[in-house]
């Protein structure tokens, strides 16, 4: 059932997108695309480079805390390659592909490298969640609809409890061992125990993660600024501050691990959310903003990673890791 589901789940996003195009009208969507002057596209693309440099800098801080030795250029290449894998995998899970590339460069154990990537991703997730809570408060104030705020707060509480629980080595290792015992086949238990044994090696302190967390929030502001450029291009009456805190809700829904990089689900959420907040806005314009943001912040940035991945040589053991 799982193998069958893997083949068809990613199509859900495409089906939702096709439904949106049908519902909003293909002609209106095309006209909205044609309204965008090329200068706005160029301006949005120009923000890719400062964004990836800043995010790589934040990741490098975490690397140094965990004594992972990579040069800035090596780290940037690996980050972009991971971005490429993330841009076409459900829930952006492909970002974890940074770990085997790091293994090839540093020789550090997989468990430690996996945790390093996970920490960088989860810090950005928390900063996005803070923006979502602000956006949910705006919805409560403007439309008296508290449901989004309830869900955002509940998720934040659950995430906080899990982080506090698993950052303690003794608790974490004990829990992971129980999970392996229950869910992992006997012939693979040894490999998973070996993998988890290095999770807490050179684990960073909370204090050392404050700066990467704040920098991660800056990268989100840049991403949503790239998308807001198309709001300006289409002349939509959405203030920047409102867009900055509402669009993260659609972005977060796009993390649902059933479509490629949230395609379709994020767009549907964005259209529903902004037409609810601004009934005078055409849904086709919001769809174009969402799609252009996806193309530039995900596809184009991921394509840079794809080109870099072609230059990386990988040995047999690395290929075995990918296949597994």
What is the SS-derived class? mainly alpha
Largest sheet: none
Instruction: Quickly count the helices.
Output: 16
Contiguous runs where pLDDT drops below 50 for at least 5 residues: 313-324
Round the mean pLDDT to the nearest integer and report it: 86
Give descriptors for this structure.
16 helices; about 0% strand; globular
List strands and helices in order, with pairings:
Blueprint: H1 2-8, H2 11-24, H3 26-35, H4 38-46, H5 48-65, H6 72-86, H7 98-106, H8 110-143, H9 147-166, H10 169-183, H11 186-196, H12 210-233, H13 240-253, H14 265-277, H15 283-309, H16 316-323
How would you describe this protein?
This protein has 324 residues and is an all-alpha fold. It has one domain. The protein is 77% helix and 0% strand. The protein has 16 helices and no strands. Helix 4 (38-46) packs antiparallel against helix 12 (210-233) and helix 8 packs across helix 13 (240-253). It is globular and about 60 Å long. Mean pLDDT is 86; it is low at 313-324.
Brief characterization of the structure:
The protein has 324 residues and is mainly alpha-helical. Helix content is 77%, strand content 0%.
